[in-house]
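Two quick folds needed for the group meeting slides. Do the first one here.
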Amino acid sequence: MVFVKFLAAIALIVSTAWVIANPGFESALAVLGSISALASTFIIGKRRAERAQHQSVSQSSVGVQAGGNVSIGDAGKDKHDR
């Protein structure tokens, strides 16, 4: 992800230089595109950090961790089966 952020920052610098050297519609769109690419790398990075899970159990316990809804004690019953 750091490499993508680096490339987006380089694209922003180059496109900003382009809009200064040759103002126009294409160069302005390049600046907007590189700004949105750089902003999206930070948004995606935050989402990945939020998805992390942490679990602590005692020494005599067994931990079960799943990425979705978990019901314990309803063996054989699935709310989604109809």
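Then this one, please, same format:
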Amino acid sequence: MARLEAQRAKLLSLISRCGSCQMKFCCASSSTYVKKNLLQCYPWPFRQKLPPKSHLPSSLTFFDGHQLRMFRWRELALSSPSLWANLVVETHTLESETSVGFADTVIRYLKRSDGLPLRLKLAICGSANATEISSLIHLAQHAWRWKNAEVSGHYSLTGYGMPSEVRFPLLAELDITDSKELGHFEDGLRLRALSTWAVRPIPRVFYGTLEHLDFYGQSLNNVVEALRSCSRLKSLQSRHLQASKDELEQGVLGTWPNIVSLTADRASSSCMITAFTLRDIFLEVLPALLHLEVDLVDPYPPPENPITPYFIANLIHDQSTSSIVPELDSLHLKYNSTDTFEDATFIHMVQSRWHKPGSDLCAGIMAMGEAVLDLSFSSFFREKLMHTFTDHFGFWMQRA
């Protein structure tokens, strides 16, 4: 309290000295100062218009010690090239070219990032008859620096100004909406992770490097071709995959022993993930699978819920038979229906794969370390499951 009174007395003394001046006295708090000044000098590229400039030609600004430290922090932060190496560019073929300073802001980022590898999120909006986008041209000139890129939009990059001869020697992660544009990135010799809406023929140059594949597949044959060709693939995320028994009987799948992570995500109502798909297409051909996640929370669920008691029963380890996914370490199931859920079957499955510390492991199967059941059920049903699981495993389910 005494310190505050001393600062107040000092401030009143300064005000009295400036009383005869015609200048406006302004005492800015640290939060206000950072908001007004940091954003003034740090315009984000996704702003279509620059923030209004603030001029104080006849003002005197007083900062205490804490505010001076914030001023120093701002200068140090803005002087770091790594801060400017993260770009979020949302372009519109009409508005972005007429916005004040849009392309200049992109150029500022490219210059201040000082040649560091870029993390880029590029969203292209417009029409099929659009002209070149100057900001995209500037980004293409620095394609040799792209390391992580997320490109969304259903329009030709070449039509918007990206030269076809552009090379991406550092590109390691690519998330692209339209797989038809994959041809632009054929020089990505270091590409490790690819996410795309449809698995079309993947450039052969990626076969020896891809480790993570996230696809919205339309054809089982295209998926199988990609999986067979990508010898280093370890992680697979499927958003849409259908197959018939005839295709399975023809042996089109084979076995993928290197994949250790699988996510089956029903991202929209058109995605058909069935119990047949999960077992016969995924689990039977992934003997080294460590992590399995099935996300079925959807506002428009299909008639069949793939997480059936039959599917859970298939995961039960039986010493008399060979178990699927014997090395499964973590299981994450997320869905919002109680119609096909049987707690007894789920508990039996977990018990067959769960071992207390110090107990002998069953031959040919690893102990499962984590089982997550994410439910959107009624509160009454959740409370019932909590007590049931507590009685069997001695722990409480984590509340949603």
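Slide caption for protein two: The chain has two domains: 35-48+62-175, 192-400.
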